[in-house]
Amino acid sequence: MPVWNQTNVNHLLARTLFGFSAKDSQQAMGYGSFTELINKAILVDTPLPAPPNPWVTTTPAQIQQDNGSAGNWYRELTYWWYNRMLSEGLNMQEKMVLFFHNHFSNERDKVNYPQYMYQQNQLFRKHAFGNFKQLVKDVTIDPSMLIYLDGNNSRGTNANENYAREIMELFTLGIGNYTETDIKQAAKVFSGWQVKGLVSAFDSTRWYNEATVTVFTKAAKFKYDTLIDWIFEQKAAAEFICRKLYTEFVYYKPNEAFVLQMADVFRKNNFELKPLLSFMLSSDEFYKASIQGSKIKNPTELMVGTSKLLQIKMTDTVNLYELSKTLQMQLFQPPDVAGWPGQREWISSTTYSHRGGFTDSLLTGRRFNGVAVTGKIETLPFARSFATAEKAVEFVDEVVGLALRFPLSDARKKFLLDTLLDGTTVMNWTTYVSNADTRINKFLKTLMRLPEYQLC
Amino acid sequence: MKKTVTRKQFLQQMAWLSGGVSWGLGSMTGKAYAQMPAAFAAAAAGATRGKALVIIQLNGGNDGLNTIIPSEDDIYYSKRPDIAIKKGTGLAISNGMTFHPAMTGIKKLYDEGQVSVIQNIGYNNPDRSHFRATDIWHTGSDAKVVWDEGWAGRYLATKYPGFPMKLPKDPMAIQLGSVESMLFQSDMGRFGTVFEDPNLFYQLVNGTSADTDLPPATLAGDELGFLKQIATSSIQYASVIQTGANKGKNAFTYPTTNLAKQLAIIAKLISGGLETPIFLANIGGFDTHANQLNQHLNLWKNISDAVSAFQNDLKNQGLDEFVSVMTYSEFGRRVNQNGTLGTDHGTAAPMLVVGKTVKGGLLGPNPNLKNLDSNGDIKFVYDYRQVYSTVLRDHLGLDAVNTQQIFKQSFERLPIFNNSVEELPENSSIELVNPVPNPVEDFTLLQYSVFPPSVGVTKQTIKLAVYDLSGQEVHVIDAGEKAIGSYQLTLDLSRLSAGFYIISLSSATGQRINKRMIKQ
């Protein structure tokens, strides 16, 4: 069992939540042990949230595209999801929803009615800690997925291969664990479905006529769900998703030995996610010092997490929405069916610079292009919420410990302290000195512009 | 052989860079832009413009058969009853092939001899996954081998051996967009500078800082080192790019599409004097599994109009002889249409190379729609690395041995450019390039290369000599044991009498290459 201390607890929060505030961290410490914290907070089932708006049950119709409703609704849906993340508390549900949105990647450019994407988003929430095999079955006939990977209207006589390929390559097995023939045969099994209104419907006259099809050398009259059962009997299935979970939550290059341990746990628990996640999050592997701070924050973690860190009461979700596009992580619009590749792929010369622009905006109340940002930091109340606020050295230490998962050298800390003091002395520091708010903002800006801040 | 940046080198890089950069750290508004080191400025002033390659990536798998259409092939129409481009509407190329009707701009360039269409490009054991196939095209590997460096990254590592300890004056590679392509990644670091707009990029970098502390030797420390490298090169190049964009201009009106905007920026930067050898632009939407006709038409109209504007712009500024454009996509699409009026993932497809210095024309046989592979896909005729090798050597001027090292095997080049060889003997261990100039008045430049005749061999005995047409040896230029490598020498032929001659390179293993030369 890992050592129960603030460093390890903050690491757990950084990986399972979209960032955290000082209060979140204190609250987590109150659980007293990882078993308690993980089982009573992080992995607790929570009921589905209320929908953003009644439009979610409106039957899709062309008029919604023509008059711009669909676009506006997509915005509302995205704001709604950001607010879910901002108010997630100590629960991992929203992190898992994003994990699945990335895993079963669907793009709003193709699924252009937000009603479908909302349904899919709630499906992910429902299964966040549930049964992964059942989730794959549900996703297979989910209207959004049928539209996105062309299962919609695919007929057995001339089946569209798109979904059959991606379920094997990207959703369950990984490349090298199937043949082109398996794909062609499976495509027939997945045919016959159509999206009608808000739901999907099966029409056996559109299905395949052959007595059997052969997938992974087994001939049967497979249906979509029995084929998925068969896919999950392939050895690669448990390993594939465990590897993906590892690379998302632990370290981006998989430790294959540990992945095999995870797969073993997953199979023994019949593909239930909760025992698997509990195993992963309680393992010594997860808390290894050399991987703490090794994850490059994705833009959603960066934006939501900074808002929490700075204790912003009413986050400007429009700002988040606009910057998510710039930072290359517009929700409901992953780049392709493989989702966002993550880690170093988030960073280029341009996105790196824009990240600094975003963190600045929560201090200045202005975006890089001058547009006003509504919920910006209330600097002095923020500073005074720390018990150490009036002691410069301790204050820097505490804020750095909260904001960075990466150990900072004494020289860097000294530099941050000098930035805060800005000419005054440690002895003379109080949050009541003139321009204390400017000094604190400058300190925070410098802190969040450190490359270390991009890591969690 | 795998090169990586050591921690010591990283430190050196940081130390070197901090000499030329006034760091923004510690100042809210202080600028953190690089000064151009004086030595570079001097070198830049006297330099002539180098060649540039503009790569356009077509994301999603372009349907080659509806781009370069086999209009006279009945099988095409029978396999695509609903989505074939109607007979008689395509724009004539030759040999029964036509351009998609939307490609009017490219057709015009083709008629002017500025477009080479290379048919049936692919590789052995083709992969039909978008991601794996894209990686193969980016790294230049065989299908069964996984490499993690881009072929352009390896080229740039050869061209800029000082990187990452020293950054050259101009960006080594520029990508319009936001997410850096694998194409520019290498074990030495990332060569690409990525942005959407030069001025905005400059503005954003303001306030970016990076310290010179050595990151700790942990997994997390590696990621921090990576972030610092990106921060450092952004600081270095933001001002160079902005200055280039302000100095350069566009001399033609571009369409308003995204691709056209990207190409307009590239033209402006080239016009502004940036010596960047490789640019990458990008257009997505080619994964046409359903209802593809309109979608595909719009995509090719976009490309055709944008490329045509780009060529006109370069021509108006006298820059067209320095720049070539190459298109590629991760795969072609299946010959049969699918059940949703689209096409599924396929294999071989055509590539286009556009520019003033290309030979122009249609290369290779028409797609064979009778003899398909077991999946119903077109078999490739040319390996995609033949095109890359040709572009590297005949356009970017890389020598034979370095080109071979990039792909770890040598590929026969294709006659794409005016200076390309017509054909090369297969499995040759020597190579001789046509003398330039030819006909010769007094001096001519000769290039030849010696490859390892077998694995592990590091030298070969060769003889390079001039013969007259009767086979009489006139002059031995070079002979003896030569280390593996490329050689270049200038011949003074002013005393040779006018007439026809043969320059011949022979090896001890019995191979011989002859080139005709005319002395005036």
How do the helices and strands line up, and which of them pair or pack?
The complex is a heterodimer of chains A (456) and B (520).
Chain A: H1 6-16, H2 22-29, H3 34-42, H4 62-66, H5 69-86, H6 93-103, H7 114-126, H8 132-140, H9 143-148, H10 162-172, H11 180-189, E1 193-196, E2 199-202, E3 213-215, E4 218-220, H12 224-232, H13 235-249, H14 256-268, H15 273-282, H16 299-309, H17 317-326, H18 349-364, H19 379-384, H20 392-403, H21 410-421, H22 436-448
Helix pairs in contact in A: 5-17, 6-7, 8-12, 10-11, 13-14, 14-15, 16-18, 18-22, 20-21, 21-22
Chain B: H1 7-20, H2 38-46, E1 52-58, E2 68-70, H3 74-79, E3 91-92, E4 97-99, H4 104-111, E5 115-122, H5 130-139, H6 151-159, E6 173-176, E7 185-186, E8 189-190, E9 192-195, H7 198-205, H8 219-247, H9 258-271, E10 278-283, H10 292-316, E11 323-329, E12 349-355, E13 361-363, E14 382-383, H11 384-395, H12 400-407, E15 430-432, E16 443-450, E17 459-468, E18 473-483, E19 485-492, E20 499-507, E21 512-519
Parallel strand pairs in B: 1-10, 1-11, 5-13, 5-14, 6-9, 6-10
Antiparallel strand pairs in B: 2-4, 3-4, 5-12, 7-8, 11-12, 15-16, 16-19, 17-18, 17-20, 20-21
Helix pairs in contact in B: 4-10, 6-12, 7-8, 8-9, 9-10, 11-12
Low-confidence stretches of chain B: 15-47
Total count of strands of chain A: 4
Number of helices of chain B: 12
* Strand line-up in the sheet with most strands of chain A: 1-2
The unreliable regions of chain A are none
Question: Which percent band covers the strand fraction of chain B?
Answer: 15-25%
Q: Which class of secondary structure composition applies to the elements of chain B?
A: alpha/beta
Can you give the mean pLDDT of chain B? 86
Shape of chain A: globular
- Characterize the biggest β-sheet of chain B: 9 strands, mixed
Question: Helix amount of chain B, in percent?
Answer: 25-40%
